[in-house]
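Reviewers of the previous submission asked for a worked example of the structure-prediction workflow described in the proposal, so we include one complete record here. The input consisted solely of the amino acid sequence. No template or homolog information was supplied to the procedure at any stage.
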Amino acid sequence: MDIDTFRDYCLDKKGVTEHMPFGPETLVFKLMGKMFALVSLDAVPLRVNLKCDPHKSLELRTEFDGKIIPGYHMNKEHWNTLILDGQIPGELIFELTDHSYQLIVNSLTKKQKQEFDHL
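From that input alone, the workflow returned the following structure tokens.
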């Protein structure tokens, strides 16, 4: 998967904004100010950090050994790094992106959820 496909997929989600708070080499996608995806633009192959349920993280890391690893520069329990070299099916990348996004939706405060519902 290339950066354009991943970026378009993220930006098509309700309320998502993109930022570069860590410099020009890291693209960050946020919902209501909370990160759900980070892309290392200078990494070859492309690397994406996504939030993930801790139990699911362990399963994925076992199944995709060396391709889904603990989140680089992130909380290793709640973030995974996906190495996008063609070994992880695109459908799974989208599914894990949706999962990360949904974790943020589920964590919104009542006020944020009201704002989100009106977007």
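The radius of gyration is 14 Å. We consider this example representative of the routine output the project will generate in years two and three.
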